[in-house]
Design goal:
CATH architecture of the largest domain: Orthogonal Bundle
Number of strands: 14
Shape: globular
CATH class of the largest domain: Mainly Alpha
Bound molecules: protoporphyrin IX containing FE
Strand order of the largest sheet: 1-2-10-7-3
Pathway: Plant hormone biosynthesis; brassinosteroid biosynthesis; Hormone biosynthesis
Subcellular location: Membrane
Protein name: Cytochrome P450
Pfam families: p450
Helix content: 40-55%
Distance between the termini: 80 Å
Strand content: 5-15%
Structural class: alpha+beta
Membrane topology: Single-pass membrane protein
Number of domains: 3
Radius of gyration: 25 Å
Length: 517
């Protein structure tokens, strides 16, 4: 018995004690940002996971900011990590990419992305490929080439919707189709649909336990990734042949093949690059679409301002939207409309945004760039959705050297997490920060927002190259949704933040077509 006790002391307890003592004396020497490294090995990972399983968007960060301040030390996912919820520090991290900080993903994520993905590239190659991607998704390209397809594919999708949909699923399908068109000029067909099925399995892998032995989801994702890569590499081969015979297409693949002309990317490199672009825009844009609709539904004044069309019952289409504690009938709608109008005018409401755009157009006529530019309130809704519930809550980086921040030292090789959502939800920067209030973004509302405070698309060398594209996709989607349908949530659905920002039930809604309203 004594031998067993001694064995336990020497093999388990003693190393743990040495680890803790060594760790805390090293921390004192280095003057790390305040915080707690938690238990040996697991650190505070379990607290982090259980916190984000609640409805509260930032419980883990809130608690530690209250105790330690806006830059604190913790230990999550196997590594000591410094969290920053300070806009200045976040900006410092973003602006020093490649000099003091570098991006860092676990091997499991790199396997799914592919080693030639833009997200994993570094140095000059990253700069070159980032600017190529930016130039492919900038305003003039969207205006002159992409908008027409965005408008057409969104309409096609919405026209095929039944009376009840899982909005999150539909938004994902739309986003995938748009990306396939933009990257490789494919219209939706059986082939793209079967690719999408494999691709969905790849995406599931990003949110699974990344250990092949334990996680069938991760194993399936790796297999599916191989299938997606095989399918895409056939496309690349075919397009290379076409390109060599002088046939050029104005899509991302065309740009990548052209860049290959000065001795750049292999077929494998191009495939990795395409897969990463599919991944980067997929969950992000589709989740934002779904959440914008959810927040609008729960904010009737904003919904009225964005969509309403005058009809025989006052604000037509609005009559079925829940208001306050109950649902409106047509009779009561007239009454409530008066209150609404008073409130809407007091918020600077002039005329419905999308109804007005539609009124100037023939049936089925596509949106133009000037229409998009006139969607000013929609941009407020998009900003507010990204502020409150961006799927990218922040970014991880690794320090390349010892770094001084606010009088503390972050040791070389440590992880840092610049939390965007923590800043976006801070009352110091946004009044009533946890309330969805799109009017805060209107020019005349007096909202001040320095550039480093609102960073839903990151910044610096890794600024999201799809930021304008995502805004256009979201705006066009909202336009066609609100001008075609009224809707009600089919079930109560909660916003959750783990393993990613999403609604628990994929936001089921019942739809009514406007021409039948
Ligand atoms: C609402 C939608 C979107 C959000 C919120 C979003 C957000 C972000 C953020 C925060 C980053 C920075 C990551 C970092 O610094 O490590 C990023 C990077 C990136 N995004 Fe987006 N994104 C969105 C849509 C898109 C779309 C539609 C595309 C497609 C072109 C895209 C492509 C990328 C790529 C390729 C990167 C990596 C850039 C690099 O590492 O150089 N994103 N995105």
């Amino acid at each position: 018995m004594a031998a067993v006790f001694l064995y336990l002391v020497f093999s388990v307890a003693l190393p743990a004690i040495i680890f803790i003592v060594h760790r805390s004396s090293r921390c004192r020497r280095l003057r790390l940002p305040p915080g707690s490294l938690g238990l040996p090995f697991v650190g505070e990972t379990l607290q982090l996971i259980s916190a984000y399983k609640t409805e509260n968007p930032e419980p883990f960060i809130d608690e530690r900011v209250n105790r330690f301040g806006s830059v604190f030390t913790t230990h999550v996912f196997g590594e000591p990590t410094v969290f920053s919820v300070d806009p200045e520090t976040n900006r410092f991290i973003l602006q020093n990419e490649g000099k003091l900080f570098e991006c860092s993903y676990p091997g499991s994520i790199s396997n799914l992305l592919g080693k030639h993905s833009l997200l994993l590239m570094k140095g000059n190659l990253h700069k070159k490929m980032h600017s190529l991607t930016m130039s492919f998704a900038n305003s003039s390209i969207i205006r002159d080439h992409l908008l027409v397809d965005i408008d057409r594919l969104i309409r096609l999708n919405l026209d095929s919707w039944p009376d009840r949909v899982l909005l999150m699923e539909e938004a994902k399908k739309i986003t995938f189709e748009l990306t396939m068109k933009q990257l490789m000029s494919f219209d939706p067909c059986e082939w793209t649909e079967s690719l999408r099925k494999e691709y969905v399995l790849v995406i599931e892998g990003f949110f699974s336990v990344p250990l092949p032995i334990f996680s069938p989801t991760y194993r399936r994702a790796i297999k599916a990734r191989t299938k997606v890569a095989e399918a895409l590499s056939l496309v690349v081969k075919q397009r290379r042949i076409e390109s060599e015979s002088g046939e050029k297409r104005k899509d991302m693949l065309g740009a990548l093949l052209a860049s290959d002309d000065d001795g750049g990317l292999s077929d494998e490199g191009i495939v990795d690059f395409l897969v990463a672009l599919l991944v980067a825009g997929y969950e992000t844009t589709s989740t934002s679409m779904t959440l914008a609709v959810k927040f609008l539904t729960e904010t009737p004044l904003a919904l009225a301002q964005i969509m309403c069309c005058w009809g025989p019952y006052g604000i037509a289409g609005f009559v079925t939207v829940p208001y306050g504690s109950g649902h409106l009938s047509r009779g009561s709608a007239v009454h409530v409309t008066c209150n609404f109008l008073v409130q809407l005018y007091s918020l600077g409401f002039k005329k419905e945004e999308h109804g007005q755009i539609r009124a100037k157009k023939g049936e089925g006529e596509a949106l133009e760039w000037s229409d998009y530019k006139s969607m000013t309130f929609t941009q407020c809704v998009v900003n507010e959705t990204l502020r409150i519930a961006n799927i990218i809550g922040g970014i991880f980086r690794r320090t390349m050297t010892d770094i001084n921040v606010k009088g503390y030292t972050i040791p070389k090789g440590w992880k840092v997490f610049a939390s965007f959502r923590g800043v976006h939800l801070d009352h110091e920067y946004f009044k009533d920060a946890r309330t969805f209030n799109p009017w805060r973004w209107q020019n005349n509302s007096g909202a001040t927002c320095p550039a480093n405070v609102f960073t839903p698309f990151g910044g610096g060398q890794r600024l999201c190259p799809g930021y304008e594209l995502a805004r256009v996709e979201l705006s066009v989607f909202l336009h066609h949704l609100v001008t075609r349908f009224s809707w009600t949530p089919a079930e109560e659905d909660k916003l959750v933040f783990f393993p990613t920002t999403r609604t628990q039930k994929r936001y089921p809604i019942n739809l009514q077509r406007r021409d039948r309203v």
